[in-house]
Structure formats: C-alpha cells, structure tokens
Amino acid sequence: MSNLVVIGAQWGDEGKGKIVDRLAGQFDAVARYAGGSNAGHTLTVKGEKVVVHLLPSGVLHPTTRCFLGASMVVDPAALIAEVEAVGEVGVTLGGDRLCLDRRAHLVLPYHRELDTRRDVGASAIGTTRRGIGPAYEDKVARRGLRVADLEDESQLREKLKRVVEERINPALEYFGAPLVDLLQLFDQLVEQGARLRPWIGDVPGELWRMMGQGQRVLFEGAQGVLLDLEHGSYPYVTSSSTLPAGACLSLGVSPRSLGSVIGVAKAYCTRVGEGPFPTEAHGEPGEQLAQAGHEFGSTTGRPRRCGWLDLVALRHAVRVSGIDALALTKIDVLAGIEPLRVCVGYTLDGKEQTSPPATAEQWHRVEPRYVERPSIEALDVVKLRAVKTWNQLPASIRDFVSFIGAEVGVPVAFVSTGPGREDGVMTGAFEWGQ
Ligand code: GDP
Ligand code: IMO
Ligand code: MG
Fold this sequence. Notes:
Adenylosuccinate Synthetase, subunit A, domain 2, four-stranded mixed β-sheet, Adenylosuccinate Synthetase, Chain A, domain 1
C-alpha cells in the first residue's frame, strides 16, 4: 500500500476534489501542497455539496489528517472562515487533525487589493482576485510574511511595518487605493494568529513520522498542469508549481515517497480567465457543454470557457508531470452531444506540433486537428450512476474512454459519471492502490 498523488491535468476544475474525497478514506492523511484560496474543490456526498478552497479535500473523512504545505499561500481570514463553514456541516478539526506548516506564506488584504487593481486591461490574466500572485511575488522577493510570523508578535510588527512602508503602500498609492492602516492590520493578524495557533505545526516532520510508521498519504494538487508556472500557458498561469514535484518542495518529502500519479482530466476542456484555448467551442456547442456541465467557477462563480478535449495539451501534461493513469471525469456531460469532437493534433504555421508551443502567442495561433468520435447516446443519469462495473457501462462510453487511453498512452483508471462520491467506475486498467 503506497502513497498517491492526485493532480489536475488540464486548466483546473477537472474534478480533483471529487476524486480526492472518494479516495481519502483509504489514506491516513491528505496533504495539499499548492496555491491558496484560488482553488475551489467540490465534494458531494449524499447530494450535499461542500466546496473547500484551502482545506484538503479529505476533510470530510473524520479520521483522515489534513496538511497544508509550505508552498501554499494562506489567507488567514479565509482559512478561519472555511474551518467555521465545514464546522457547520459537522466537520471537526480538533486534536491534531489539521496541520498548517509554519513556513507557508500569508495572503493579506493588501495582496487581494493589488491583485484586483493590477489584473485589468489588455494584459489581464483573469485571476481569481484572491491575492495569489502578489503573495508569491513577496515570497520570491524574500519579504513575505509567513505563518511563523504570527507566532512572534515583535517580528510580525517589525516585518509588517517594513514591507508595508517600503513596498505595499507605494504600490497602493500608485493605483489610488486606500493605504494600509498598520495598527489595524497588526491587531487583526494577532487575533487571527491566536485562532490559527492550534493548527500551526511542522508538516515535513509530521509526514516523515507518519510515513515512517507505514501510514499512507495522499498528496493533493490544486489548479492543473496547464496552469503551472513553468509548464503551463505562461503568462496565463497561476504563480505556483502544480506538478507532483511541487508536492516534494512544499511538503518536504522525497520524490521516492510520492507513489503513483493520477491525473484528473475532464472528458472535454474548460478554462476560467484568459489565455490560449485552441479547442474552445464558441456558440452553440460551447453553450451546450457549459449548460450540461454546469460550468461556473467554484471560487468566483465566473462562467467557464468550454471546448473539446485537447489531446496535445493532455499528452504534454502527462509527460511533464509523470502521470501514471488518468481519472476521466464528467463523461455523463458528453451524453447527447453531437458531433463529439476530440483534438488529436496541432499545426503551427503548417508544421505539426507534438507539444503545445512555449509562448501564449503561438499557442493562440495553433490550428487544432479534430476527429469526430461516435457520440454517446442521451442517457438516464440515474441509471448511469448506478453502474459500478466497467462492463456495464454503455459501449459508447467504453469506446470513448478506450480511445482516450490509447491516444494519450496511459491507462484510464477511473471513469467518473457524476459529482457524487459514489458516481463512477474503476476500469481495471490501472490499480491505484485501493
Ligand atoms: P476541482 O477544482 O478539480 O476540484 O473541480 P471543481 O470542484 O472546481 O469543479 C468540478 C465540478 O464538476 C464540480 O461541480 C463537481 O461537483 C463536478 N463533477 C466532478 N465530477 C463530475 C462528473 O463526473 N460528472 C458531473 N456531472 N459533475 C462532476
Ligand atoms: P482548482 O484547484 C481553475 C486560474 C485563474 C486565472 C489563473 C491565475 O479549483 O482547479 P490566480 O488567482 O491563481 O492568480 O489566477 O489561474 N485559476 C484556476 N482556474 N481552477 C483553479 O483551481 C484555479 N486557480 C487559479 O482563473 O486564469
Ligand atoms: Mg475548482
């Protein structure tokens, strides 16, 4: 029995939360390693929906421990609000169930303000406005405030004063935004620090101890490979490493401890915000996918752009992140969609591309090549979701799934047929350690 990594293989919102929630009961811990409250992971159990932004998607399993890694950027107010929100549905995070690494950086109100003021006009990325980019900028510039600073008031006061006076207030002034009231922010942070204190800890040390005792850890990614800072559609990306390597960096674990890597991919593609999306389906087909898939952002509520499955991008995601097998989600959404298209290749200036181009400008210009697949007939979703074995799935779904596995070159381990924890079928093509 080994550990497992679950990551998004597209532009986020692939259904990672659902897959992690489904698997988490078999693990002793779920450790989230990337991003912050830009993520929105939907967990649906017995028809009840919970969306987590910072907390790991294993939070609904009462004995599974939850870790937040050092590479995350954590908005203290958002974390406190989320703990309270899950508390209302009966989730308790007492004892040592939640552990927030003291090396994680803080997202403060001024990061959110700067994110919102900056991300406008022709160069806008369409960020989630959660302060993610500005917080990672402060981290890389080595002036960021970290969770550990909440444990030392004199350090907190001194660092906050320096960064606000030197960097933040001048930037806010440039945008005509209200300046930071240092005293007020300091008091707020002291109060939030006191609330968070029971959860602050040493994540690498705890994971090392757990793994040393043979306990299993599920490493949970956020966003998706195509939003990765290095290997995504730069600059239309998030500011962190979404690849499995990010788990090693964030959680301080050995690459040898990761176990298999599961890439979660939708049976079509969506993207929120700006950036290249060669298979985007404009007009009627795009709207059909959006409606059938309820494609609205789990964090911002923004409509997601929808289009056809892009196998050039998916093969790239598989290569750069060492994906061993796919979990293919939202197959139910394709039922009745006709024609059913899949992009199997790109050309750029007449030349075949085996990977997405490195620049967004070129990625925008590629010409996708499609095949039309036999459509999946309109189905009764209640009946479809009752199916629990591969052989009982409709032949049109099995045909589509087999085609994807063969084209991408890795097996499809699991086919998700609905948002609920129980909805879906193991294909038998890959064992993910259950
Ligand atoms: P994440 O960010 O990758 O966790 O994904 P989100 O939660 O942002 O978005 C995925 C959406 O699809 C959520 O509303 C899920 O409840 C839903 N979902 C997940 N898997 C399936 C599926 O197989 N079928 C359908 N219809 N919905 C699904
Ligand atoms: P989950 O974990 C989808 C996108 C934003 C924007 C870009 C940069 O739910 O899959 P940021 O706020 O990170 O600076 O925004 O990245 N983005 C996501 N899109 N799902 C997410 O997370 C995302 N997190 C960031 O829409 O295009
Ligand atoms: Mg999401």
